[in-house]
Specification:
Elements lengths: L6 E5 L6 H11 L4 E2 L2 E3 L13 E3 L2 H9 L3 E7 L2 E6 H10 L3 E4 L2 H10 L4 E6 L3 H11 L4 H16 L6 E4 L3 H16 L2 H12 L2
Parallel strand pairs: 1-7, 1-8, 2-7, 3-4, 8-9
Antiparallel strand pairs: 3-6, 5-6
Helix pairs in contact: 1-7, 5-6
Bound molecules: guanosine-5'-monophosphate.
């Protein structure tokens, strides 16, 4: 029996530092893969089809919904985003450890429908610090920042049903905490039995 791949679900309000934590995770564990979602939003400059996302039309997305092709999907900031069931099943079967960067509505649907994922929520150290980070990155207009802050307060309430919560105050600490979660789940007995079997011929 092949070792079952780990499905790590990461959610966070915008500005909590999830993207940087994810990047660090892939440096620490180069064999982990990022799940490529489907979305109806248009590509941003530099985004390549099949890398950040599979960019599809509304019709194509709706067709996938009707074919039950999604393990979860949600509307985020007016666009549809979804994780294909086939992506999760293939990774699990091949023993690949997969990271899903998805919003909390999608994560909740997945938790209800798909067994065995590990759910991690990243929060900023405070609302004041979240505001400071959003203003500092100056990618968004002030009204957009206000909307993100209101949305963040709602999203943080959802953290209660996740398996783990990381407070991203100091990046290095948060990053180590995320890596520890991965290590612990990689060492679960049911994932280790195949290796132990080969090592000791049992
Ligand atoms: P962006 O358009 O900035 O790349 O992503 C916007 C939001 O969509 C992020 O919060 C991200 O976590 C979420 N997202 C990306 N892919 C998926 C997905 O497949 N399913 C769900 N539910 N959310 C997603």
């Amino acid at each position: 029996m092949k070792r079952e791949g780990l499905i790590l679900i990461l959610s966070a309000p915008s500005g909590a530092g999830k993207t940087s934590l994810c990047q660090k995770l892939f440096t620490t564990f180069p064999d982990m893969k990022e799940s490529v979602s489907y979305t109806t939003r248009t590509p941003r400059p530099g985004e390549v089809e099949g890398e950040a996302y599979h960019f599809v039309s509304e019709v194509e997305f709706d067709c996938m919904i009707s074919e039950d092709a999604f393990a979860e999907w949600a509307v985020v900031h007016g666009n549809k985003y979804g994780t294909a069931l086939s992506t999760l099943e293939a990774a699990r079967r091949k023993g690949v450890d997969l990271v899903l960067d998805i919003d909390c509505q999608g994560a909740l649907k997945l938790k209800e429908q798909f067994e065995g994922g590990v759910y991690v929520f990243v929060v900023p150290p405070s609302m004041a610090e979240l505001r400071r980070r959003l203003e500092h990155r100056s990618a968004d207009a002030p009204d957009v920042i206000e909307k993100r802050i209101v949305r963040a307060a709602d999203e943080i309430k959802e953290s209660r049903w996740y398996d783990y919560i990381i407070i991203n105050d100091q990046f290095e600490v948060a990053s180590r905490e995320l890596a520890s979660i991965v290590v612990a789940h990689r060492l679960k007995t049911f994932r280790m039995l195949e290796r132990v079997g080969k090592l000791f011929d049992i």
